Amino acid sequence: MNQIEQIKKNLGPDLAILGHHYQNDNIIAYTDIKGDSLELARKIPELKAKYIVFCGVHFMAESAAILAQENQMVFLPALDARCVMADTAPASLVEKILISLNQEGKKIIPLAYVNSSAEVKAICGKYDGSVCTSANAPKMLAWALNQGDGVLFLPDKNLGQNMAKILGLSPGEIVTVDIRSQGKHINFGKIKDKKLFLWPGVCAIHFRFKAEQLNHIRKTDPKAKIIVHPECDPDVVAIADASGSTSFIIKYVREAEPGTRIYVGTEDNLVHRLANEYRGQKEVLPITPSLCSNMAKITEQNLLHTLKNMKPENKITVSEDIAVLARKALEKMLEVCS
Q: Is the pLDDT of residue 10 over 80?
């Protein structure tokens, strides 16, 4: 029994290790719960463990800390495990853009993808908005569109476009916001009738999947199936056989007919895990290699270090003024999707 396993055994129910699907197999082997952002968020309020170790990126651990009980402590093995897309939407700029969009008495509702900071989630709570995951984005966007005169969706432009298509919004109702120079270039005359305002951020991992790659697969392997994550470009999603969250991708592969060859457009760790799980039954291949360097910052070494140093001064903290508003946004999502 190695040291991590020994600590887990010693602490028993006082410890819960959570892992996102994009973690590598060496880390997933130690997790008590694995899932996508929605699954993991739903689990936090139910946990009784005193110590919660989140194997993922920083915004995920922040959300866990916001939803955890006062007697619980949340830890992240690599504090520098950030999200490039989340960092495209700094809170101060988000609020400036939102205030600008709300001029002339409009009520534009902020809806933030969970791939965002606690401060951005707090802005959503402050302005009667909420958050969403890739699994519940259509439902949450439909909810947000009914709360005011329009929605500012951030930070993932691609996810927003793909969800808008599902909901039947026309291209004329959608605009990507010009956030340059603190929003000084926004032409309010041209956007006053828009319903969906998209922040111009994208996921560095899913940005790598291109329509020409899928077209090549269609030509060379016409019987194969293709499934992609909705953070991909809308042109990619349009060509794929299916699109959905990591949990949806897992379900799609599980339910595919034996012998099916499936190309998957998402982070490599999940693709390789599925390939190994169904080896000999069906073939699972990446559309193109795409590893998240930030997810990879969680290692067995820093996981062990964290487990040995679970002290109050090392826990993930969110200031109470931010936490109250961010919790409001997160709990609204859980309420709408319950």
A: yes
